Amino acid sequence: MNGTGLTNLEIQDLINKYKSELRKLDYQTNDIKATIAELEELIETDLKRQDTTVTTRRKERENRADLQKLRQKPRKKLKNQERKDIACQSGISLFWMELKTVVKYLLILSFWI
């Protein structure tokens, strides 16, 4: 006996139980840390998505403003190259600008026929 009233076998059994509990707690701690990391990653992803959305919306507003500037009658007549430069800067495809011009002329011709 060692002064505790327990045999060496009982003491060893208690040590093994405590070590088992400690391993379980370690596993739970690591599992919780992994869950926290996943949640933090979700928050970061969501914040990045929000930043991207805000940036995209800002660009869309800027593009709309550029389109409105293009739609307004210019005070001076722009040369074709200047229009193309403005269109490229505002993100409008030259194809669509040319298509718009073709459709406009087709409509004018259709009224003549």
Helix and strand arrangement:
Layout: H1 8-71, H2 80-90, H3 94-112
Helix pairs in contact: 1-2
Provide a concise account of the structure shown:
With 113 residues, the chain is mainly α.
Overall geometry comes to: rod-shaped
Count of extended strands: 0
* Model regions low in confidence, pLDDT < 50 over at least 5 residues: none
Query: Please, how many domains?
Result: 2
The value of Rg in angstroms is 36 Å
Order of helices and strands: HHH
State the share of residues found in helices, binned by percent: over 70%
Biggest sheet record: none
Pairing-aware structural class of the strands and helices?
mainly alpha
Termini separation: 118 Å
Mean pLDDT: 76
| Number of helical segments with 4 or more residues | 3
Percentage of β-strand residues: under 5%
Give a description of the structure.
The chain is an all-alpha fold. The protein has two domains: 1-72; 78-113. The protein has three helices and no strands. It has helices at residues 8-71, 80-90, 94-112.
List keywords for this structure.
3 helices, 113 residues, rod-shaped, 2 domains, mainly alpha
